[in-house]
Design a protein that fits this description.
- By secondary structure, the protein is mainly α.
- Among the domains are: about 70 residues; about 130 residues, no CATH class.
- The protein has 15 helices and no strands.
- α2 packs antiparallel against α3.
- The protein is globular.
Length: about 400
């Protein structure tokens, strides 16, 4: 009993420090120091299962803290790793065709990543021009609503029933008069400050040059990186961790690769159709629709609202809005019933209630990144839950079978 007392004291102290680490992440004292104390205390007791779990939970927390502190610095590395992760199946296919891994990495970097950057460079001038024009139009939004209400007051139905729209008109116009200047000047301020900021411009150029280089090295050394991560997993947890990491990787790769393909398809469809109906800023709105596809339902509603607002500045407002609603309904149906099942598959499909709950919860706790990652993370958690339920159900069936007595 006396010999085990120091062990329990050390475990208790490490546990307290673990919770202190979670609290002190928001304080000025560096969490890295507390993590090192936890590691030093846990090392002599590394054979204890509880200590092992405590150490790995602390490691997860410190990694999250490091990523949050160094997010700006690590951004090109994270982007490059995601691109390499998405292109890894193509890399393995080229290697299976007897093409050396270094040559395969060069080909993918030049053709794959180079094509992405080429598309961005070609579209940036047009996007910038349309963004500036849209910002100027938003600044005139109160006057536009004023003219709309002038037309509304002349409708026969309004005159016949003596409907008073002045209160609604006053509240809406006053709201946009208060907020319109901010909406209209927000994008202009961002673009002007970004253009005037020499360090930001230099950093962007460095990232543009650095990302393809990092993608090449990540692709070349991907097996080594993968094996290093595997070696960090304790042997007793390797089967379970290997299964879960493989499941997470398959879902994430399937979702990201499929969603990127769908994004470009939606951009092309929406931009073309908006151009055909004469809607202003068709390319910019198409890009917004494509990017918002990463946030199911909510992103589409936001993009639809913005396109309807843009339609208010053009001619034949009613006809244009009807066309926008028809286009949105048709493309949304094509996306859900054709593109998503064929490209992403059923594995990432979630119940709408679960999807909404995941988006709001992840968005609340992790911000914009949480909103973007809500779908794959929720699909991963649901997959794990289904596996555990299946295992429990099978175990119950086996227990019932073994306990059944023959007649």
């Amino acid at each position: 009993m006396q010999s085990s007392l120091p062990t329990y004291l050390i475990i208790g102290l490490a546990t307290i420090l673990f919770f202190v680490l979670g609290y002190m992440m928001r304080e000025s004292l560096s969490p890295l120091i507390i993590y090192l104390f936890i590691a030093a205390l846990c090392y002599p007791l590394r054979e204890n299962a509880f200590v092992v779990r405590l150490f790995w939970l602390s490691t997860v927390l410190i990694v999250i803290w490091v990523l949050s502190v160094l997010s700006g610095l690590l951004a090109p590395f994270i982007i490059a790793f995601i691109l390499a992760f998405l292109f890894e199946p193509l890399m393995e296919w080229l290697v299976s065709k007897k093409l050396p891994r270094s040559y395969s990495a060069v080909a993918i970097t030049l053709l794959g990543v180079g094509s992405i950057f080429l598309i961005i460079f070609l579209t940036i001038p047009l996007i910038t021009a349309q963004s500036q024009a849209l910002a100027d139009a938003l600044a005139n939004l109160p006057e536009q609503f004023d003219s709309i209400f002038d037309s509304l007051e002349q409708l026969p139905l309004v005159k016949q029933y003596d409907i008073d729209v002045s209160a609604l008109r006053k509240s809406i116009v006053s709201f946009f008069q208060a907020k319109g200047n901010g909406l209209g000047n927000l994008l202009t301020d961002i673009l002007s400050k970004a253009a005037q900021s020499v360090p930001t411009l230099i950093s962007a150029i460095v990232n543009i040059v650095l990302i393809p280089v990092l993608v090449f090295y990540f692709l070349s050394d991907f097996p080594t990186i993968k094996q290093t991560l595997i070696n960090l997993i304790p042997r007793e947890y390797f089967p379970t961790a290997s299964e879960y990491f493989g499941l997470a990787g398959a879902i994430l790769r399937q979702y990201l690769r499929g969603q990127v393909i769908i994004m470009f398809i939606l951009i092309a469809i929406y931009s073309s159709l908006f151009f055909l109906i004469g809607l202003s800023y068709s390319l910019l709105l198409g890009i917004i629709y494509g990017v918002m596809a990463f946030v199911p339902y909510i992103g589409g509603i936001i993009a639809l609202t913005l396109s309807v607002i843009v339609a208010l500045f053009g001619e034949a407002v009613g006809r244009t809005i009807v066309f926008i609603l028809i286009i949105y309904a048709l493309v949304h149906a094509i996306e859900n019933f054709v593109l998503v099942p064929k490209i992403i598959g059923e594995r990432v499909k979630l119940n709408p209630i679960v999807l909404f709950l995941a988006i709001f919860l992840f968005g609340y706790f992790f911000g914009f990144f949480g909103v973007l990652s809500a779908v794959p993370l929720s699909a991963f958690l649901v997959e794990i839950l289904n596996k555990q339920l299946a295992i429990a159900s099978q175990k119950k069936i086996d227990d019932d079978s073994s306990s059944a007595k023959p007649l």
